[in-house]
Protein 1
Amino acid sequence: MEPNNPQPPVFNPGQQQPPQAPQRQQPMPQYPYPYQAPIRELPQMSFIDAIKTCFAKYADFSGRARRSEFWWWQLFQVICSWALSFILMFLGTKTMLAGSLLLSLALLCPLLAVQTRRLHDTGRSGIIVGITAFFYLVMQALAVKVYWPLMDLAKSDPMAFADAIQESVGPFGIALGLVALVYSILMFILLIFNLQDSDRNENKYGPSPKYQ
């Protein structure tokens, strides 16, 4: 008896290869949105870099500025104002106020520029910056008109200075109060905008300075 061990059939090259079942191709996965590369967040701008950038863009109102650049510049202005006031306080009240006013005017242009770029970074126009600057200048002019003649009393007779301020409330004092109120509202709106994060995508003002 032959052993019950079937051998595999030997394929003859002259014969046709037995048909094979067609292989089904796997469909390509369909994505609802086109592929986008992952967004990378750049390191935060340092204090020194922010100051250098704002001075380099002293009157540059185009482009965008991230939060770190804006807030470092705000800190720089506060430090300069405090330091100057401390130095000039020994020279009299009028000298101190005059020096603080001149410093504010000298740093006003880069402040408006970086504020405009900060709004651009959130996709907003900078027109509110111009409106706020107008009310700021009017408020400063009214403050000088109302309080400057009374500054000599601030050091010689503080009680008389306080009484003179109360008596000086007239048309200019009322206008100063109204302008200061509008200015405060505009500054509060700008504060909300400045706290917002950068627009992750490129907008009409340029590419994002924070995300790439």
Note: Helices lie at 47-56, 67-88, 93-106, 108-121, 127-147, 151-156, 158-167, 171-194.
Protein 2
Amino acid sequence: MELTILPLKFANDQLLKDLLFRLRFVFEKVEVININIDIEHTYSAQRRQFYSTKIIESVKTLNPVPEGFVLILTDMDLFVPVLTHIYGEAEYNGRYSVVSVCRLHEEFYTSESNNSLLLERSYKEIVHELGHNVGLKHCKDWTCVMHSSSGIEEVDIKGNLFCNVCHGLAKDKGFVL
């Protein structure tokens, strides 16, 4: 399986480097492509957030990568209309996903910075969204990376691996952690 990461309004080079290191254990090929795309039309001034579905649509229109999974990684705060915020979104059984690290920073909640916690949270959310790409739904098992997270505490509680059920489903699709 191949993964292409598209940093979009993303500035944390060390986090990207650390994520690449971890993701290369999961994917045969992981590469980073920098694209220049205007996503200002996805911004909601009222919410002060970017509409994740429209970001995915904008990148899909360009089709910057002919095959494999495409992960848009951003620092921007994301939303979908029915939720106050999201950490990411993915096409179910599709190729494209987006993950925001905006609310994964510990300093978003406290005055402390914690780079290792940011890496762990980011990795979990990336694996979670890629799980949706291969057809996995939200899992009721709190320790499974596919458990839905509406708050940062739920991101921290869940594990970074699939439960046995999700592992079997993911393995059938060729996605093994």
Note: The first strand starts at residue 2 and ends at 7.
Protein 3
Amino acid sequence: MLSGVYSVGGWKVKENEELTVKRLFENDAAEVEELLREVWPKAAEYPEKWRSARIIGQRQIMNEMKTGFHYFGVRLNRKIVGFYKARVLKDAYIGEHQSVHPAYRGRGLARAMYKHFIQFARETEYRRICVNVLPSQVASVKLMEKFGFKKVKEYEQIPGMLVHLYEKEIESEDATGKTVK
């Protein structure tokens, strides 16, 4: 299984900090719940109904892990400071629920998660990945462009919440690391 361990190169981490992006499991559910309780009440760009529905507990997290969701966490010095989850839906691998602790924003953690998401899809042979992004989240939109995602749809995910659906076709790499179409 891909662990996605990343060194400090390219991310705004301090000297002697260790940044990793790895698959999370049931024993990580309490820490994910704690992160959600910190992130979502403060996410004012989302409607209140949406924010409160994102604060899920350990049982729901563990149930999702058992029923097809893959959880991945960003750890900084072994503490989960960000995560995303993904699942297969029809012919695509869908990334959802990306969250970064407010105290760690602006340090490249979302970029690390998107890089991991793409690499995981490539290594597990998913050929299309998708994410929803609020148009007002300028940094996320810029990451979509940087990583080659294309906006394919604009819609209301819930009444009053406009999102852009982005997708990316994933190309394979040969044994030398060269792109194979």
Note: Residues 109-123 form the longest helix (15 residues).
Protein 4
Amino acid sequence: MTVAAILKHKGCEVFTARPTDTIGEVARNLSAQRIGAVVVIDSVGQLLGTLSERDIVNALATNGAWALEMSVAQAMCRTLKTATLHTTTGEALAMMAAGHFRYLPVIDRGALIGLISIGDVVKNRIMQHEIEVDTLRAYVSGADYAVTSPIASWSGNGEDNDKASESYRVLASTMADASLD
């Protein structure tokens, strides 16, 4: 699966902040929107970094309550890795783990189009594995399918075959997407 699949599921809304905004303003926005990070951009939309809840906690631990009056530029993460729509979930997870960060901006043709979290990636990987397990269970239970067809043609009847057929369609589509990466 790719980052495109994650954004298709979760949406592409990205909350941003300016480097001159205060940490207090961003903290209130994070709370109101129930999100964990914002992307920091300049006046022309150039990506400058991210500011996450973790960055705010670190600023508070270092500077006390005064941190809420500090500018976003003083606490944001400037070391920025980005993903594209074609980045696989495995690649995204590896980048996040290696870089010790939880949020990854998504860029397409030079423009910011999304922000994914490590939670989004993990949730997507779990869904992917559940589909594979369901498909294998259906296969092992004796469901018959046409190997040459990209969409399964299941024998038998009932709801289990409908679920297995849908699982196979999703898995086949996922495998096709993965082979393009």
Note: Confidence is low (pLDDT under 50) at residues 146-161.
